[in-house]
Amino acid sequence: MTDRSDSTNQGDKGDKSDKGDKGDKGAADGRRVAVGDHAPDFLLPDQTGKSVRLSNLLSEHAVVLYFYPKDETQGCTAEACSFRDSYEVFKEAGAEVVGVSSDSVESHESFAEHHRLPFILLSDEGGALRKLYGVPTTMGMFPGRVTYIIDRQGIVRHIFSSQIQFNRHVIEALDTIQAMR
Q: Which of 33, 57, 62, 76 is catalytic?
């Protein structure tokens, strides 16, 4: 299996000539959220059942929004634990880490407890948020693994997509957050 990594830095806006201005519409029409876009707002339940809205988080912190395929799988656990191990560094840099998958609130609660995850896990049952952001699938069937770094103004500053470079998501996010300071 080949890895389709895509790392887009904060200075690279990419070619958006055929994308137009998405504003808050995100990728509902099949387009992907890109660097420089305003991150689509959302409201989803976390692992405790509490509703979390992106705009509320952004009023206090930059946000590292990472989409992952499934709780308790080898790669997703490695990625989550890597974010856990760097969580205090993210907090000190002014960022909140938020993981998203289509797992249930109950699954997230168990996953967070089992691995002592101190950050927010959002339940996107049905995949509406994944679709809104345009997170791709791998081989047309596996949910993608993509990390978005969103500044306090709600602008996507960096995107990293790699199904198999689990720990690289944390490195890319931390480098971007620290460069934003």
A: 76
pTM, two decimal places: 0.85
Q: Tell me the per-residue pLDDT of 118-151, one tens digit each, with 9 for 90 and over.
A: 999 999 999 999 999 999 988 888 899 999 999 9
Q: CB of 127 within 8 A of CB of 104?
A: no
**Whether residue 76 lies in the annotated active site:** yes
**Longest alpha-carbon distance in the chain:** 45
- 3-state DSSP call for residue 172? helix
Q: How many domains, the chain?
A: 1
Q: How many CB atoms lie within 10 A of CB 101?
A: 26
pLDDT value for 66: 98
In this structure, the number of other CB atoms found within 10 A of the CB of residue 170 comes to 25
Whether 30 maps to a domain, the answer reads no
